[in-house]
Amino acid sequence: MNINRNTDWFSILGFLVIFILVPSVCILAVFALTEPFGPRDWIKHNAGQIGDTIGGITGPIINFVAGVLVYLSFKAQIKANKEQATQFKRETDDNTFFNMIALHNKKVDSVTFQIASGKKVESFSAFKNYTTEYNKLLKEEFSMIARREISHNWANLSYQAYDIIWQPYALLYHKPVHFTGSQSQVDELKALYGSSDDTWELTKGLLGNPIDTPPEVNSSLQKVGYLLFEKMSSTQRLKAIQEVHSKFYHDHGHHLGHYFRNIHYTLEIIDGSEQPQKYAKIFRAQLSRYELALMYYNALSSMSSKEHVQFLIIYDIFNGLYPSDLAYYPSQEVVKEDLLCRIKSPERP
């Protein structure tokens, strides 16, 4: 704004000097040096000197003004060139970005998932099924978290955890099946685990192997594991999710790998553009809720780069994430904490 104002003032000044001041000086000089204002004979004999005087006075002024105008014209040309370059960059960015959006939509449509009946579903339905599959694996991890807690921290378990192991223990040793949470019942379980040389095997003996645990027991384990998962630090949660992601990617990476890579390339283009926030909003609008869920899990995995996670944070990609679409229900604060923890994680540069 200031540059434009200065340019306008210089233009006005140049106009006044060249078209008003200089001609006025010349006209006044002629009148001043001729009758009735001046001696005609003296002028007649000194006309050359008078001309030199006028030229000497007006010449520097004209040259100065001309120089200023040349400078202003160069400045205006530079500004026009910059504006043209910016406009060209924006047009190029638009073409590249919207081509990537079109490619993204094609990739979404190309993603398939084979359901139990053998039928393949595509696009939105495929992402929904992949999210369900991922959550299933994470819930299995919750069950394992509960088993590890029971086996290794048996002296300080929650009421729910003691309840899980009391029932098979009571059936085995002919005790009342109902767990009341009394100190005597807790002490019996502590004594059982305290006398065991291998508490992990003891837990397996009571609850069964992880692969053939009765559904009702597995459901109880998942609830206990879920509560433990929520209380974990970001580092611990990331470790659990990364273990699950390795299993998930082993089974489904060939279907989704190209999709995640294209997401990263799109974010790179957004970040290098003249209008990153505008493009980021458009890109977010393309993402379905189940895409966001899988993108979030992928971001926390060791397979995502730190640069990728930084893009996701900077452009607020998970603004529309539904916590209910995940196996746990993280708040926005937990989402940000876990993403920041992933950036600090040393697994992958």
Automatic annotation (TrEMBL):
Full protein name: Phage abortive infection protein
Keyword set, alphabetical order: Membrane, Transmembrane, Transmembrane helix
TM region(s), chain numbering: 12-33, 53-74
Family annotation (InterPro entries): PutAbiC
Species of origin: Pontibacter actiniarum
Upper classification of the organism: Bacteria, Pseudomonadati, Bacteroidota, Cytophagia, Cytophagales
Pfam families: putAbiC
